[in-house]
Amino acid sequence: MRMKTMTALALLCAAAAAGAQDQVPGQVRQCATNVEPRSVEFPWMSIERWNGINKDKTALAAKGDVDVLFLGDSITEGWPRSEWDSHFGNYKAANFGIGGDHTGNVLWRLQNGGMDRLRPKVVVLLIGTNNFGLCGEGPDQVYRGIASVVSSLRQIYPDAKILLNAVLPVEPNPDHPRRLNVVKVNRDVAKLDDGKHVFFRDYGRKFIQADGTISPRIMPDYLHLTEEGYRIWGDAMRPDIDRLIKQ
């Protein structure tokens, strides 16, 4: 599977972070459960480019033969080739992350991208941060969006195990409102773990230092991961994927 170069990813991450910071306080777009393709032009991701990437993902779905399906936004999309191969090269793994996606975009892709043809054993889901940063939604709305994606995955892949990632921490300061919103939504998302089909894991704790801050060595923009960050995430997820794929 073709992965983005780290240079291109760095540009995407920087632009995405700028876009999140440009969100007007109090301005909310209804994204959580609004099933839609990309409908907003961003300087770093035009609708035309999003449609092109989605077309590539649809072609990937048509090939089938996927045991571990990764689904999400730019954090999922951005796996460096070396870390991807190191952690998941022994699986039949496929990356369905698209930068800038919110839960409504993922819901649309699940219904319109031919993904129902797949029969993954494990789905690795990380979604929700763009509902905060690009849509201006609050924790309750973001939770509803994540819950809707999980529900759709259960319907499409009834035999799959869902490794539900907590929304990763953002902002260097642990008392920042955006960080606190992430903490709140994760408390609710954790309740979706049923111990049978859905398994919640908060790997974001591994990116937080003892004083509660986040090192730019791991998250240079306090949102996206460096190669070292992906290594930490991969090391944390691999045992859970190993266990779930054998169940």
TrEMBL record:
Record InterPro entries: Ester_Hydrolysis_Enzymes, SGNH_hydro, SGNH_hydro_sf
A Pfam family reported for this protein in Swiss-Prot or TrEMBL: Lipase_GDSL_2
Domain of life the protein comes from: Bacteria
Keywords: Signal
Domain SGNH hydrolase-type esterase: 70-232
Alphabetized GO MF terms: hydrolase activity, acting on ester bonds
Signal peptide annotation: 1-20
Protein name from the UniProt record: Mucin-desulfating sulfatase
The species this protein was found in: Pseudoduganella plicata
